[in-house]
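task queued by scheduler; priority normal; single chain, no ligands, no partner chains; default sampling; output format set to structure tokens
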Amino acid sequence: MNRLFLLIFPIFTIFLDGCVTYSKNSSLPSIQDINLEEEFTIEGKFKINFNRNIETGYYRISTDNGLVSLTLGKNYLLPEENFQFNKGDKLKISDFLDINLTNENDLLDSDITVISFLDVILGYRKSYTGNFWSIEYPSKKSNINNSNIPLRTIISNKNLSLELLIQKIYSEK
């Protein structure tokens, strides 16, 4: 009986230890308000509709000394696309698409300045007058890291609709 206990107890203990989940305390700093001049990173998912084509994927936006880095991926098995911008540059929304476009005129009006794009994602801008963009915040503002940033943003015009979902946001202080 004693030998059986000494044999079964360690196996049972190892089995139970493997089934336990350990909670990791998030060490991301709390963000009350993001200043666009500071360094920060936003990670999330996107969905874009264009002429009945739907593309989904993930994105990561990070700022560093006035430069904005945008990383787009369709899934974690395919290679990512990396873009570098100055804050005054124009971002082509068509960069989110992974289809061959035969008629570029459909996307002629689908660019937005990077600074305006960041303003929209962070909830600072309620409308965008250039190129007839429509901006919608369908859900209440979230409390990601105690911030006041919208969880979902939909940017659309007559040709396409881009929905952005923020999963993480943190400051690089």
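post-processing summary
- The first strand starts at residue 40 and ends at 50.
- The helical segments are 2-19, 114-121.
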